Amino acid sequence: HAKRGGGNRYQYFSTNMTELALRRLSLENNLHRAIERNELALHYQPILNIKTGKFSGVEALLRWNSEELGCISPAEFIPLAEETGIIISIGEWVLRQACIQAVSWLKQGISLTHMAVNVSSIQFLNKGFSTLVASILAETQLNPQLLELELTESTLIFDEGAILIILQSLNALGIKLAIDDFGTGYSSLSRLKNFPINRLKIDQSFVRDIEEGAENAAIVVAIIAMAESMKMNVTAEGVETAAQLNFLKDKRCHEIQGYLLSRPLPATKAEIFLKNQS
Ligand code: C2E
Ligand code: MG
Ligand code: MG
Ligand code: MG
């Protein structure tokens, strides 16, 4: 079927596709067993509160060190976990682990104000999600006020009524809700103001060149002002330079998160980091 000269190209394409399919299959098989094999871990990125000058929040970020495949980035395995539904059990593991860690740190006298946990839309929309959150809180005895769930704008574009019911039941538990990567999605502002959201996290793409780029600087300033007017907290993600930090401080951004301050750290290192600050 291939034309003269095109034969090789077809073959190359086909080999490539086979490789991709095999990689996917192997990732999927290993991901199914990642929990029982103890291959998952949470890293924690400290978040600086500008007003208090303290790192009092952390974001839990999932890491997968597969015995067979090595370290796989969340950017690769989270979408796969979502497509296959494995995200339901992984998400539950993440939530429980983060709550257990927060309780342990509080018992050691670390003054944690929020443990942020990323929640996939598949997990959020799964029946009984708020009941699961309630039971993990009861089981771990974490003060609900300290748990903050990070949702993406793409989660909030589904049926408004249905989303509102889930958000309200989560809000009723006393936990906090944040919108992650804010500004990159399509959530409408008229919807947002009806939702019980406590925090906007400004996406790192806007933070990246605020010092030079007038356009991104204006967007960041607008998001901070919007958060203020809706009585929400606002966090900037992906802060890598002192110039970005100074700009955000100057514009009264509440919290800062980024490699400049700390990378996501394994639990033992995060614990030392939080204890040693003064
Ligand atoms: P995210 O929730 O927006 O997390 C922030 C990402 O930015 C993290 O990447 C973090 O390591 C990275 N980051 C932090 N500071 C900086 C910085 O200064 N510069 C740059 N370039 N990057 C920075 P990570 O850990 O690779 O996670 C990527 C994404 O995977 C997360 O984005 C989140 O959407 C998803 N993810 C991670 N853990 C979980 C999880 O437990 N559940 C779910 N559903 N998704 C997760
Ligand atoms: Mg996040
Ligand atoms: Mg983000
Ligand atoms: Mg992200």
From TrEMBL:
The chain holds residues 302 to 579 of 579 of the full protein. Residues 24-278 form the EAL domain. This is cyclic-guanylate-specific phosphodiesterase. It comes from Crenothrix polyspora.
